[in-house]
Design goal:
Elements (H helix, E strand, L loop, with lengths): L6 E3 L4 H13 L21 E2 L11 E3 L6 E6 L5 E4 H5 L4 E8 L4 E12 H8 L7 E6 L4 E5 H4 L5 E6 L2 E2 L9 E3 L12 E7 L26
Parallel strand pairs: 2-7, 4-13
Antiparallel strand pairs: 1-3, 4-5, 6-7, 7-10, 8-9, 8-13, 10-11, 10-12
Bound molecules: ligand MTE and molybdenum atom.
Length: about 220
Amino acid sequence: MADDDIEIHGSIKEKLIRRKQEWARDGRLLTGTQKMEDRSSRLPPGQREVKDWPVLDLGLQPDVPLEKWSLLINGLVENPVEWSWKDFISQPVFEDVSDIHCVTSWSRYDNYWEGVSTAHVLETVRPHEAAKHVILHAHDGYTTNVTLEAFSAPDALLAHRWEGQPLTRQHGGPVRLVIPQYYFWKSAKWIKRIEFSALDKRGFWETRGYHNEGDPWTEERYG
Ligand SMILES: Nc1nc2c(c(=O)[nH]1)N[C@H]1C(S)=C(S)[C@@H](COP(=O)(O)O)O[C@H]1N2
Ligand SMILES: [Mo]
């Protein structure tokens, strides 16, 4: 976990972060239809479909070579683990196709992910009964929080491949989290630690006006 060894490209986008915080304060993009929970459309309210895949981050892109990569999974668990890259890729393979919904209003359909399911993570580390929250920590200093229930979703995974190719650094490679049921800010890129906790801890955007959960179907954008 020697973070000093990890090279980070770029510099933090203070202006962009401020603008997104202002959007949250002003409730930008909210359609007001969030109470309808209309699931007849594949597109959640206020979203538009894109075919490309935008890159969004704080401006800092860690460059984590596989030989230095590790993932610590600890906190309120019976069996904490620290996986090296070799350990990680010897776990059972999980594949899933899901849609991405970003809070900045783009959605991208049918992303083919390969990696390790969060269900397998849970079987391996066995959270204590008191663990109700999961805090995700990334190499760029980013954090985000989800309930244990959301983390356990059957389509959630630690992804290292997208569309049959290794996940690029821009998109969070070597490994990122993917939780399709939520807006994409919950899907931490460059993940380095998964912490199980009894208490909730709001993450980077959650402390800057974003919703604590983030269901796109009910427009849990801000709050
Ligand atoms: N580590 C880290 N993960 C992150 C972010 C970030 O800045 N750092 N941004 C989040 C946000 S706001 C979005 S929309 C998605 C963007 O992922 P993408 O660049 O692959 O589209 O990553 C999420 N995960
Ligand atoms: Mo986002």
